[in-house]
Structures are given as structure tokens and as C-alpha cells.
Specification:
This protein has about 550 residues and is an alpha/beta fold. It has three domains: about 180 residues, ABC transporter type 1, transmembrane domain (ABC transporter transmembrane region fold); about 120 residues, ABC transporter transmembrane region fold (Up-down Bundle); about 200 residues, 3-Layer(aba) Sandwich (Rossmann fold). Helix content is about 65%, strand content about 10%. The protein has a five-stranded parallel beta sheet with strand order 5-6-7-3-8, sandwiched between helices. Strands 2-1-4 form a three-stranded antiparallel beta sheet, with helices on one face. A hairpin with a 6-residue loop joins strand 1 and strand 2. Helix 6 packs antiparallel against helix 7, helix 7 packs across helix 11 and helix 17 runs parallel beside helix 18. The protein starts with 6 loop residues before the first helix and ends in a 7-residue tail after the last strand. It binds adenosine-5'-triphosphate and magnesium ion. The site of adenosine-5'-triphosphate has 10 residues, from helix 12.
């Protein structure tokens, strides 16, 4: 299956896939915009009736109440529908991203820090969520509300309409200026809080050094500075918050005042601004509700801006090149092909970086044991990764039993190579799962055989539930965990075993155990190993990479 494309296409799919919900959402938005216009109109009639000393009918009063209630209810319905729709869309975005994750080549995982991918799944998708919660849809609704209020005002008082139309850009600019300053202050306050929080454990950790070298004053000042910064930022944020509302109230009072004063004039001005008492009451209500959408639109623009960056990063992730899906194992090019063959291989991490390997040749015949030596940083681990197909060489060829490693289907790789690293990576699950990696092709008998080969079967058997014992902290020693990684590597009987410094972290006694396990695991296999103590007595061939090692 190809890539799911972009966030826009996923959201388009969500709209098409939930037509009823989308229609309901549209209806709720239109309804809430229209319904919000009605209560002031009824109010106008009530006030006019009162001014003319007519009776206000019960149905008019009840109508006013019902309209206000219905408008509130529809607003709530609109908000919930937006939330439901947003959750659906973000769910689809997350699903597409998880599916993508499974189709990425191994090199993606090698080259991309896990934190970066995690941030795409969490932070960036959250911005898409906020795009719905208070972004595009609510902004469209707010713009509609703003224009509909303006329209009704125009039908009642052209003068006030023109005034508001002229004042709106200015008001919007002021609102944005306040919002930006307030956000900046909030951000600074959060940073300051983070700094103070970080300083406490840091001080506690270094308390002895601080005492011994009499650095208490310095620490106190540093802590004081951070707290001071936090206070200042918080004060600024409070100031903007406190000043904004009075300004809005003053401005709307000013506008209404101008209109009222103008309506009280005679002649042409009166016909331009003139109105009944009821209309005046309605207009006051409209002007009051004119600022709400204006303020929301400011925040919505903010959210959309940050969402655009998030969407761009998600799109980049969705466009990552995928591994080719190969389902059939290609036959080795020739029956007599060497187990590993590198010819003229050059490699560097990224353009313009230092060449780790240059014109490197290596042939390992089937059944051979080769020890790879070289000083630290020479490129031994890199070489193993090239053989595993995690990287592509810039020039030259890598062949495993005559095949380019990238041509081996990912699902088949375990049958071709076993790879053991310095560190054991535990997966959630049972002891057996550590060996099978939850691969359904691996039988219990195969797990037992692999464990027996590395000398761990008796230990596992003595566990309360055998291979079904949950694998937790402290169940195995460091050396036993390394034996477990060897069992994991050999359980599907690969012909080639690649070992990268697997005894580096072990004491000499445990190392002996691991080496014995390796000897058993290496029988009838081709072994390429990075570990100078291994195979020396075995007569294995030694290849030095990047100049002679110091030992
Ligand atoms: P050691 O004996 O310390 O394990 P090594 O021979 O295995 O060393 P490599 O891990 O292959 O060396 O690294 C070779 C060089 O490539 C080093 O200079 C290292 O800093 C660099 N290198 C390794 N991995 C990456 C990477 N993902 N991106 C960029 N440079 C890298
Ligand atoms: Mg290494």
C-alpha cells in the first residue's frame, strides 16, 4: 500500500467518511450563528412596547427566554460536534502515522532520534487537534457571527454600522497586540517556573560541593533571579489581562454613546442614526457581543499558525521514503557466493562528512569465523550496519550470500542473520517473548532449543512459569541477559552471526559463560565478530579496519 498522503487528504477522508456528522456540524454552526441574532430583535420589540406603554405579551417574553436558551444549547451542540469531529480526524491522522511507522525502512530508526518521532505523534498531532477545537472551524463560525451581527446592525442603524466597520480593524489589531504580549509573558513565566523547578534538585544534588566551596551565595542569587523573572512575567501577564476587558467595555460604551448622542440630534444626523428605544437596547446587546468573536478570532489565528507548523512536520513524516515491500525471498545469486562480500565500499554519515570507510574490501567465506578489530571510532559497528542493510554504501557493493542486504525482505532477515549488540534490549512480555520477539513463526520448541544452546534452559525451566514467566527487572543477571540476546539471534537458525562487542560490559567470569555460549551458537555458522578476545584461540581470521588497533 502506498502512502496515505497528507494531513489535508486525511481530513478530507474524515469529512467524506462521516457525512452525517459533517452535515450536522454545518447545520449547528449556521443555526448557532442565526439564533444568536434573534434575542436582541425580540428585546427590541419588548422595549419598544414598554416605551409606548403597551402590554408586553407573555409569548414575547417567553419567546425571548426560549431563544436565549436555544441559542446557548445550539452553541454547546456546535462545540461538542467540533470536538467529536476533531477527535475523529486526529484519530485518523494518528492511525495513518502508525501505519507509516511500520512501513519505514530500518535506516529511518537509525537516523532519527526516537524523541523526534515521539514529538510528531504527541505534540504535532495535538496541534492538529487544536486546529479543530479552536482553529479553522470555529474561526469560520466566528467570522460568520461577526458579519451577521454587522449586517443586522446596518439594518437598524447605518451610522453605528459604519462606525463599527471602521473601528473593527483597529479593535482587532488591539486585541492581537494584547494577546501576543500576554502569550509571550505566559511563555516567559513558564520558562522561569521550569528554571526554578530544575534548580532545586540540581542544588540538592550538588549540596556538598556548594558547601565545601562556599558557593551558597551564588546559588541563592541564581535561584532569586529565576524567581524574580517568573514574578515579572506573571505580573505583566496579569496586567494585560486586567487592562484588556476595561478597554473593550470603554470602547463599546464610547461607540454606543456616540450613536445615542447622534440619534438625539435633529435633522439629517437623526435620520442617519435615529432609532427607537427598543432598537437602542438591541444595538447595545449587539455591540456587546461583537467583541467576543473578535477576541476568539485572534486566538484562532494563533492556533492555526502553530498548527500549520505541526501539519508541515506531520506531512514530512508521511512523505518519508518507505521500504520496498518484498514478500518473496530472492534466491542467492550463486550457490558458492561468499557469506559476506564487500567490494570497494565507501561510506560516510551524510554528505561532506568524514569518510568512515574508503574503498574497503572484505570477503568472508561460508563457515569462516572472522574477527573485526580496529581502534574506537574506526567504523566497525558501521560495517556491521552496512552488512545488515541498515545503511547503503556510497560506492561499492555489499553482498550477503550474493544478495544485496536491502533485497532481503525485512520479515526474512532473521533467517539470514543473527545480530547481537552490546546491550540487551528487553521487550514487554514473557521470557519466551524475549527470544521469539513475539514472532508467530517461532515455536516453543525452537525457543527451548535456542535457550539450551546458550546454556540458559535450566535457569528458565526453574522459573515459576518457565518460558511464560513475565520478564521483569532483576530476573536475569547482566551476563544472562546477554545469553538471552544470543538465543534471540539464533532462534530462527540464521547462517550468519554478527556480534558487536557483546562481552564489553561483562566481568571476566560472566564473559567466560557468554563466550562458551557463543562457541556453541557459532557451530556450523559463519561468524563476523567485533571483540578482540574472541576466537583468538580458535584460529579465526583477524581483519583490521582503519589502521592497526593499539592492542
Ligand atoms: P567503537 O569501537 O567505539 O564501537 P566503531 O569502530 O564501532 O567504534 P563506529 O560506531 O562504526 O565505530 O563509528 C565510526 C565513526 O562514525 C565514529 O567517528 C562515529 O562518531 C561516527 N558515527 C557513528 N554513528 C554515526 C551516526 N549515526 N551519525 C553520524 N556519525 C556516526
Ligand atoms: Mg562500535
Amino acid at each position: 500500500m502506498g502512502s496515505e498522503g497528507s494531513v489535508a487528504r486525511i481530513i478530507g477522508g474524515t469529512i467524506r467518511g462521516s457525512k452525517a456528522l459533517s452535515a450536522l456540524l454545518l447545520a449547528a454552526i449556521a443555526g448557532s450563528v442565526l439564533l444568536a441574532l434573534l434575542p436582541p430583535l425580540v428585546l427590541e420589540q419588548i422595549v419598544d412596547a414598554l416605551a409606548e406603554q403597551r402590554q408586553v405579551t407573555v409569548s414575547l417574553a417567553a419567546g425571548y427566554f426560549l431563544l436565549v436558551a436555544a441559542s446557548g444549547a445550539l452553541d454547546a451542540a456546535k462545540e461538542s460536534l467540533i470536538t467529536v469531529f476533531g477527535q475523529k480526524a486526529t484519530h485518523h491522522v494518528r492511525s495513518a502515522m502508525s501505519a507509516k511507522l511500520l512501513r519505514l525502512p530500518a535506516s529511518y530508526y537509525v537516523e532519527t532520534e526516537p524523541g523526534v518521532t515521539a514529538s510528531r505523534f504527541v505534540n504535532d498531532v495535538n496541534t492538529v487537534d487544536s486546529l479543530f477545537a479552536s482553529g479553522v472551524i470555529s474561526m469560520a463560525a466566528d467570522v460568520c457571527r461577526l458579519f451577521s451581527i454587522l449586517l443586522v446592525i446596518f439594518t437598524r442603524s447605518i451610522g453605528l454600522g459604519l462606525l463599527l466597520l471602521a473601528a473593527a480593524p483597529l479593535l482587532f489589531w488591539m486585541t492581537r497586540a494584547f494577546q501576543k504580549r500576554m502569550l509571550a509573558a505566559q511563555l516567559e513565566s513558564r520558562v522561569a517556573v521550569g528554571r526554578t523547578n530544575q534548580q532545586i534538585p540540581e542544588t540538592l544534588k550538588n549540596i556538598r560541593t556548594i558547601r565545601v566551596f562556599h558557593r551558597e551565595d551564588y546559588m541563592r542569587r541564581r535561584y532569586g533571579d529565576a524567581i524574580e523573572q517568573g514574578y515579572r512575567a506573571q505580573e505583566r501577564s496579569n496586567f494585560y489581562d486586567a487592562v484588556y476587558s476595561p478597554i473593550v467595555v470603554t470602547v463599546s460604551a464610547l461607540l454606543i454613546g456616540i450613536v445615542m448622542a447622534a440619534s438625539a440630534q435633529g435633522g439629517a444626523v437623526r435620520s442617519f442614526f435615529g432609532m427607537s428605544a427598543g432598537t437602542a437596547a438591541a444595538l447595545i446587546a449587539y455591540v456587546g457581543s461583537f467583541f467576543d468573536p473578535l477576541e476568539s478570532i485572534g486566538m484562532e489565528i494563533q492556533n492555526i499558525q502553530s498548527a500549520v507548523a505541526g501539519v508541515r512536520r506531520i506531512n514530512e513524516f508521511l512523505r518519508e521514503p518507505e521500504r520496498e515491500e518484498r514478500t518473496k525471498t530472492p534466491e542467492p545469486a550463486s550457490a558458492k557466493a561468499p557469506a559476506v562480500q564487500l567490494s570497494g565500499v565507501s561510506f560516510s554519515y551524510g554528505k561532506g562528512e568524514r569518510e568512515i570507510l574508503r574503498d574497503f574490501d572484505l570477503t568472508v567465506q561460508e563457515g569462516e569465523s572472522v574477527l573485526l578489530a580496529g581502534r574506537t571510532g574506526a567504523g566497525k559497528s558501521t560495517l556491521v550496519k552496512l552488512i545488515l542493510g541498515l545503511y547503503e554504501p556510497e560506492t561499492g557493493q555489499v553482498r550477503v550470500f550474493g544478495m544485496p542486504p536491502a533485497a532481503i525482505p525485512e520479515t526474512e532477515k532473521r533467517r539470514w542473520f543473527g545480530y547481537v549488540e552490546q546491550q540487551f534490549h528487553q521487550i514487554p512480555g514473557t521470557v519466551g517473548d524475549q527470544v521469539s520477539l513475539k514472532d508467530p513463526r517461532v515455536s516453543a520448541a525452537q525457543i527451548q532449543k535456542a535457550l539450551a544452546t546458550v546454556g540458559l534452559w535450566a535457569t528458565v525451566q526453574s522459573l515459576p512459569e518457565g518460558i511464560h514467566t513475565p520478564c521483569g527487572e532483576g530476573l536475569f543477571s547482566q551476563g544472562q541477559l546477554q545469553l538471552l540476546s544470543i538465543a534471540r539471534a539464533i532462534v530462527l537458525e540464521p547462517k550468519l552471526l554478527l556480534l558487536d562487542e557483546i562481552t564489553a560490559n561483562l566481568d571476566s567470569e560472566t564473559e567466560g559463560q557468554v563466550l562458551a555460549a557463543l562457541k556453541a551458537a557459532s557451530l556450523h555458522r559463519t561468524v563476523l565478530s567485533i571483540s578482540h578476545r574472541l576466537y583468538e584461540e580458535n584460529g579465526g581470521r583477524r581483519v583490521v579496519i582503519g589502521g592497526e588497533a593499539p592492542w
